[in-house]
Amino acid sequence: MEARTNIPGLGRIGIGSWTYPWAVGTVGDRRPRQPMSPSGLVRQAAELGVKVVQIADNLPLDELTIAELKDLRKLSQDYGIDLQVGTRGVDRSHLLKYLEIALQLEARLIRTMESKQGLPAPISEIETNVSLVLPEFVQADVSIALENYEAYPTSDLAHLINTINNPKLGICLDVVNSLGALESTDQILDNLASLTINLHLKDFVIQRLDHLMGFVFLGRPAGQGRLPLDQIFKRLAQFHHRPDVIVELWTPFTKTLEETLALERAWATESLQYLSTLASESPSILNPKS
Question: Please, what sign has the CA dihedral across residues 267, 268, 273, 279?
Answer without folding.
Answer: positive
